[in-house]
Input
Amino acid sequence: MNDRAGQAAILEGEATRDAVEPGRVDLDVLDDHVGYLIRRVQLWIFQDFERTLASVDIRPAEYSVLCVVGANPGLPQTKLAETLGIERARLVRLLDRLEARNLAKRVPSASDRRSHELHLTREGEAFLVQLKALAREHEGHVEQRLGAKGRRDLLALLQRFLAA
Amino acid sequence: MNDRAGQAAILEGEATRDAVEPGRVDLDVLDDHVGYLIRRVQLWIFQDFERTLASVDIRPAEYSVLCVVGANPGLPQTKLAETLGIERARLVRLLDRLEARNLAKRVPSASDRRSHELHLTREGEAFLVQLKALAREHEGHVEQRLGAKGRRDLLALLQRFLAA
DNA sequence: ACACAATTGTTGTCGTCAACAACGAAATTG
DNA sequence: CAATTTCGTTGTTGACGACAACAATTGTGT
Output
């Protein structure tokens, strides 16, 4: 049953039986799977993001939290978690770190003593401006690979997917 | 500094100061970042993949390995790892599991006694046919969200990104 | 008013995954 | 032959998603 591959190799002038040529490995149906391709692209993008923001030591999830808290001051943790698709439990340690760095703070809610209102500190607000500049730089790296239109198309497709 | 948000809420007729309305949370610049959107889509897709292939207990990485080994019998582990962008170290445990399930096997290479040629077992080949059918079913779920053209466009963009 | 359920933040655990370092065995190079 | 590189392997670290359980607080039904 490997004969097909073996014969194909022979027909292509290959010497070895099943051995695969150095550069050319057949991905089979894999590059027709959105899941496979999107995983590799996502990996590339996150690595570039972390590299671009390495100087400020901020990871993608932390950036997203700072953005949403900055745009929605007073947001309770549960709402933030479900907005970003992050676990409440994970958000706890994440906020601990942001609070320890004096970027965000938890303020006890007056109306509901169980919940905390989330706010950026003054330092956090200024920091976020710097972050957004770096994030735009990172986004430039993406655009460099797809072109301006390609990137817009990709954004539109992804947004459509999530809105469905 | 939250005064602006507070006043905006008051002007919009909100009773509480900074409190955010239930459903509407501002994502700010987040939905213009490919990284954020692609993470959420990738999460959705992997979860659907795992759910769709739950009956055969195969995860995305294992599926990709079976596909590539099936299409390239005799492939050594290092080549497989760099083809799929998987760590050599991670591939070891992954192949251990596939070998324990009698789906793949490591054959000592005659030409290089350090390396192992990877092959599917006969059982593995038959199993892969079943897997591909389930994977197509999963891909149908993606197409259901984007339409046939939307899915093709997305595939093309992702392939273009990786080829760059 | 009171028992009961639901919610909020928190702690802890488990399994997956990427990344890295180090090792013995074997191959390659000089 | 000596030095270096490659291959598979083991182990560890840290980020992450998922889940269970808990105390404090709030909401609900009667």
